[in-house]
């Protein structure tokens, strides 16, 4: 088992800051049509020395284990960062103790980065009580019907 796999396994065994944050100041949600993964990140701000800084961060992830592990690490790293400092973080910064992601998993770090940037931009600021990623997916299913057309030999 590689060092990355061992650290990812540890992060998955005890993920930090999982779940909705009802008093969040901002919420960011992103999804990948390529792999079907989605990440939602909640941010709560406070003021420190006249600057707006992240007091708490939490997440929900729907998809691969690496996205969950990276989001868990990222929410821990964000505490105390100003909005500018958080916005400057790259996927490789957000992985924390996981270290560099394998090439096939780089998109997981990018998902977390984009959820963070989405929350920082305030493009998704409402979080309704009880709203989760899976309920959001269910509510936004395309409308219509499926027609089955037999294929002739």
TrEMBL record:
Amino acid composition bias (Polar residues), ranges on this chain: 121-143
Molecular function per GO: iron ion binding; iron-sulfur cluster binding
Domain of life of the organism encoding this protein: Bacteria
Classification via Gene3D superfamilies: 3.90.1010.10
SUPFAM superfamilies with a match to the protein in the record: SufE/NifU
Basic and acidic residues bias: start-end ranges: 1-10
InterPro entries: NIF_FeS_clus_asmbl_NifU_N
CDD domains reported for this sequence: IscU_like (cd06664)
Residue span(s) of domain NIF system FeS cluster assembly NifU N-terminal: 5-121
Residue numbers spanned by region Disordered: 1-30, 121-153
GO term, biological process aspect, one: iron-sulfur cluster assembly
Protein name: NIF system FeS cluster assembly NifU N-terminal domain-containing protein
């Amino acid at each position: 088992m590689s060092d990355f796999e061992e650290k990812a396994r540890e992060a998955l065994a005890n993920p930090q800051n999982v779940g909705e944050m009802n008093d969040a100041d901002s919420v960011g949600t992103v999804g990948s049509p390529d792999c079907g993964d989605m990440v939602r990140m909640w941010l709560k701000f406070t003021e420190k020395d006249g600057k707006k800084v992240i007091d708490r961060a939490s997440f929900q992830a729907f998809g691969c284990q690496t996205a969950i592990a990276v989001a868990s690490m990222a929410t821990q790293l964000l505490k105390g960062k100003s909005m500018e400092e958080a916005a400057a973080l790259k996927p490789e910064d957000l992985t924390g103790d996981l270290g560099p992601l394998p090439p096939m998993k780089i998109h997981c770090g990018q998902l977390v980065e984009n959820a963070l940037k989405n929350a920082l931009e305030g493009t998704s600021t409402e979080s309704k009580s009880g709203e989760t990623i899976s309920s959001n997916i269910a509510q936004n299913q395309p409308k219509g019907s499926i027609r089955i057309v037999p294929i002739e030999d």
